Amino acid sequence: MTxxxxxxxxxxxxxxxxxxxxxxxxxxxxxxxxxxxxMQPTAVRYYHGLLSIKDVIDVLWQTHxxxxxxxESKIWGDCSNKISWLVPALSWMFPQAKxxxxxxxxxxxxxxxxxKLKDECYSDQDVMAGWVDNSIVLAPPPEKxxxxxxxxxxxxxxxxxxxxxxxxETIEADFEQVDDKRTIRLEDLVADSYILADLLKWLDLEYxxxxxxxxxxxxxxxxxxxxMLTDEQLEKFxxxxxxxxxxxxxxxxxxxxTYEHPV
Length: 263
Prior knowledge:
Elements: E1 3-8, H1 15-22, E2 28-32, H2 36-47, H3 53-70, E3 75-79, H4 87-93, E4 98-103, H5 106-117, H6 126-132, H7 156-174, E5 181-185, H8 186-191, H9 193-202, H10 209-213, H11 231-247
Parallel strand pairs: 1-3, 1-4, 2-3, 4-5
Helix pairs in contact: 2-3, 3-4, 5-7, 7-11
């Protein structure tokens, strides 16, 4: 019998690397942002009350439901920040699923979105906001740059901060109805092989040092670069995200990534 596994996060938090690692097992079919052109618009519509949970489930049966039905693997799953908003629907469809929430220091996530994705994330909120409030009739095309939940902030940077806070608070609330779940900080996962070994054991997969080594460098990053937030950006970040940062045990001292970790 196939085990469904869903890994949720804010994005820019190692989900692509985790999907790649899990796919090294012969009996695992793990996707990264599965059916993203369907999932991202569906998630935004659901968040803003434009789709009912039944509507969402109808979409998910055609994507995740179909993928799960046709797999021949021991594990089938999706690593995606898009499904972070859809936990209630997916947990109803797959009550036997195992769930993993991956958290990364919000300063690193915000910096990565802001400095690396640039126009792909919250660069122009007017289109989505106008469509949500009905002042724009035609929905945007299913491109990533459009489909972000409308934030209460006017600037791109503050909206990204809000995204990190809001998505993890939503996951935390929705995880109350999920039975089999884990929450892991990315910083701990890449620093401690025992955490990865324990996670793989929970998934009934065998740990090896090679699996841990795969997490030592970021995946899908051409030129590793750590851009620290400015003092002005940090002030805005803490005004929005301080409670969520404290909840996950992050303090005010920001670490600098070197992309060199002890083995």
